[in-house]
Amino acid sequence: MDSCSSFPCLNGGSCTNIPESYTCSCPEIWKGTNCEQVALVCARKPCVNHVRCEDGPTIYTCICQPGWFGQTCDIPVSCGDPGPIENATVTAPGLTLGNVAIYACDRGYNATKGSEERLCQSDGTWSGEPLVCKFAESCNSSPCMNKATCTNLIEDFKCACGYGWAGKTCNLDVQPPQVANCSKSVRVNATERTHKVAWLQPVFSDPMNTELQLVSNYEIPSYTFPWGDFTVQYSATKLRNGLRTECVFNITVRPTPCESLPIPKHGTILCNNWSPDYGQFCLIACEKTYSPSPPGRLGTWMICGDDGRWSSQPNDCDLHLNNESYILSYHPNYVDFMYEGCNDTQRLRDLYLNHMLKHPDISLFSRLYPGYEESSSVRMYCNP
Length: 384
Description:
With 384 residues, the protein is mainly beta. It has 5 domains: 3-69, Laminin (Ribbon), CATH 2.10.25; 88-135, Complement Module, domain 1; 138-173, Laminin, CATH 2.10.25.10; 178-255, Immunoglobulin-like (Sandwich); 267-382, no CATH class. Helices cover 8% and strands 37% of the residues. It is built from 3 helices and 32 strands. It has helices at residues 324-330, 345-357, 360-368, and strands spanning 14-18, 21-25, 30-31, 37-38, 50-55, 60-64, 68-69, 75-76, 88-91, 100-105, 109-113, 117-119, 132-135, 149-153, 156-160, 165-166, 172-173, 178-180, 186-190, 194-198, 203-205, 212-216, 222-226, 228-238, 244-255, 267-272, 280-287, 290-291, 302-304, 319-320, 338-339, 378-382. The strands form 13 sheets. Strands 26, 27, 29, 31 and 32 form a 5-stranded mixed sheet that branches. Strands 19-25-24-22 form a 4-stranded mixed sheet, with no helix packed on it. 19% of the residues are buried.
């Protein structure tokens, strides 16, 4: 039987007839009954762009160089198109291993994160992150008003406002009216019960040249005032923003002041300490066993009115009365106006107030200008 006549041996194998069959002698890299199985594939050098080839029981493996893949390492690695980027351009001369994609923000945009260069890596991915570009030239549209300085920010802007302006775009008028020639407070002494006072009228203005509403509690910058305290007030309100500026000062009109009385020898002077600007009412008291020499008398009021003049001057307590009976015979009430020492203040204060309330004119003064009931209502000038 000629079994080899059918050429059963494959891949260059040689056939030999044997009884009732055949046998194949296979070349080096083939095996099997008909030389149909690969024995040493790597010997045929199937791999390209490889590091090494490894034979297995039934298959071989190509270990590829970086940048290649596939059964025989014949397919180059590709990172693919990096894709379009918003507000930027991408230049990628190649998409395979080692190629670099270059990003550039469009004009007017700044990179805020990501990479300006990305490398195609052996695993088929681009290194880094895509570039992010955001608008950074908002000042080109001149958003700041009223001569403000504009600074670009990322997708924003900042205005440095000039004096008197505020807001995101410096469009808010926050300038209050300005005032010049605002008078200081005035104090005058008047011998008469009224006195004419004139002052400099303030001038209001607005650097933004907008309308002002002016108000004052005096129509003209002068007035005839009685004694007292008065407030002069001017105000200007800016109609555009409602801001207000005031000029306020006080005018004080008082009677002509009185000169200080001399403190009597061995005596003290008791005077009103409430509303002393409107009048002075004083008594003298003497140290115990002393009295004024005639014609001086204890219990006589010394009064200073609006002309600044005293009705009388105090006498010294220079009459020494050794015996109290002499004092009583001299004047029954003299003993009330005598004191032990300068610290006898409460008794002298009570004496002064009791004596004052008996005088119709002086008690009327206390009702017009209250304050005599306070503990410090009486001043005491003592000559020890």
